[in-house]
Amino acid sequence: METKHVLCATCDISCQLVATRKPGEKDFTLSGDYDNPMGPGAICAKGKLAQTTFEHPNRLLHPLKRVGERGAGQWQQISWEQAMDEIAEKLQGIVDRYGAESLAVTSGPWNCSTESGMTRRFMNILGTPNYLSPVALCLGNTAAVNRFTYGWMPMPDFENTNCVVLMGHNTNSQNWVWEYVRLRLAEQRGAKLIVMDPRRSPTAERAAFHLALKPGTDVMLCLGWINVIIEEQLYDKAFVRDWTVGFDALAKRIRDDYPLQRVCDVTGLNETEIRESARLYATSKGAIIPWSPITDQQVSSTSAIRAISILRAITGNLDAPGGEMLMGIHQDLISEPELELTEMLSDEQKRKQLGYDEHPAFTFKAADIFAEHSERVFGHRYPNLVKGTHMAVPSTTFRAMATAEPYPVKAFFAIANNALFGYGNQALVKKAMLNQELNVCFEQFMTPTATLCDYVLPGDSWMERPNLMDTYNWATITMTSEQLYDPPGECRNVYDLWHDLAVRMGMQEWFPWRNVEELFDHRVSRTGLRWHEYLSKYKIQLGHYKHFNYRTTGFATPSGKVELYSEVLEGFGCDPLPYYRNVETSDAFPLKMFVGLREPQFFQSGQRHNRRLRKSNRYPRTFVNAVDAASYGLTEGEWAKIETVAGRLFMMVTIRDDVPPGLIRVPHGWWLPEEHDLGADDHNDGLVIPDDQEYLDREQGIPHMKGVPCRITACAPPRDFVGIGALQ
Ligand code: SF4
């Protein structure tokens, strides 16, 4: 029996799997790895069926060059060398005409997790600050905002915790598997569970408290908890005295603006459940609030993330056993931040980063303030936590691409990212792409984004490459992955893309490694091992971490303490303390809508071509309460049109009583590869996510997705569907 260890990169969880095959067999069988302390045995159907996703007739196997109108689907197959020659020449021409900042790149870090910082390295050497990523709406922005309070993004200590607070999360065996496994183990040990979620779910039903708050009021509930914890003196007084600044200002803000009655009125919860749940969290020692995308995607995102950070801090959970670990980056590796060479980007170019002044929270404007403090505590000036701590702001960038204001952006690279579906305001993203002189994508399939490109380059999958995974620069945990198969056709590693362009654009000296294995040799060189030796020795390598490290180093903030009152935010003209803000319904849009939700069969906009996964989820379905279904004349299994100020989309109706009246649920990332136009303009949630200023978080500029005002009406099927029988 042949056995290999691999990391599934089908989604961002990175489960460690065991791959086995008998002599004479072609295919490996995948199973969860019980040696993995980060989620023993974790695997879901997407992971088990990964080979059917990648070994598929729809797979892109060769570089393609557009020969017809953009989006007309007329392509010429060309060689990788020709593609690189032409792209390099065109990109150089654009940079010469408009400046380096005229290149914007969006990258999906999990899909191309072997890039080892090479995307940013290429961009920094070229001189463009305009890196985008969907992590702006999902975890990366959380990491950036956590820095305002205590300088790093914490890793929850599931293994020793006594209380877990899940916000809008319904972890299960097919979704958030890694977290689900660790949560269930914690519950078996006796840890208590608190769930904040408007929806009823199996997770919520197990919880000691299910706080079914109104959509978009998460920050208000957190402010209510802070109120209880301060009023009842449940906070860690020694920690607050010795290690925080701004406690009095915070207490005054809470006392004056967020009395518990107001919290109850806004959240729809009663005082007893707020008080008792706050007490459970504050007195559990240790307690964790694991990251959730729910607070990444609201108009009050920054305040909500700040309020969560403050709760972690004042209850004494930072760096405490069973609490929230501020780990740094693995010391044995040459890290991604080192490889990114951010120091090579000039201050003048950093200041050109789109969104720098209007929405600075995750741009270079913030990163430069934290640089010296990160270096003092964690040894990295630009740690690029979760690849999200110095990005351009997506909506500002797409506007610049569409309008050339404040300056022209004329080249757009989408690296393993279906960008058309990855952000809000899909119509704007499309307009932006159509206004480019050069669109390039590196992909596995002809996605809606790829159809708008001039060059489509075929990328490898996680089964077809080795991987060195460093927890997205978030924790001192490194994992490795062996290669199972050769890449099909001319599919390449993302490293080859940046290397080959660099060679053609006079930057070869910065990309001396001939392939990704040589790059990994370099990355593990501090261990004294070659990559193949490291790969054999380590499935997982846990780096150094010690509790209460801040007692030696201080926190990675300007004051060296936890900044409950953020002078950095104040210096940006933002509120230094967390506050409540929401988007309200109107007569025209009387319902609220949750968008950006994952479904167990799919990750983001992926896997829609996989018939085995589609069989149990054929078409996009909106969940509606029976009360609303009756009010709006909706019928189970029939189609409905959902509209917001941004646009409209179509979904089938599913009537469910776990969704409260007044709220509908819209899943993320739907397109139909079997349809001639891919269904690209009819079903994705980005079509109905507005990104006008009133719908953006002020500090970050990310759009509101948890409680978007909308309306829903019954409608005829939007087309004659060919059905999933057309898929192979
Ligand atoms: S949850 Fe599923 S898709 Fe995600 S990494 Fe694990 S096995 Fe792969």
UniProtKB/TrEMBL annotation:
Chain ranges of the Molybdopterin oxidoreductase domain: 59-502
Pfam families noted in UniProt: Molybdopterin (PF00384), Molydop_binding (PF01568)
UniProt GO MF annotations: iron-sulfur cluster binding; metal ion binding; molybdopterin cofactor binding; oxidoreductase activity
Coiled coil (UniProt feature): none
Superkingdom of the organism of origin: Bacteria
Domain Molybdopterin dinucleotide-binding: residue ranges: 595-672
Keywords attached to this entry: Iron, Iron-sulfur, Metal-binding
Family classification: Belongs to the prokaryotic molybdopterin-containing oxidoreductase family.
Protein name stated in the entry: Molybdopterin oxidoreductase
Organism: Oceanococcus atlanticus
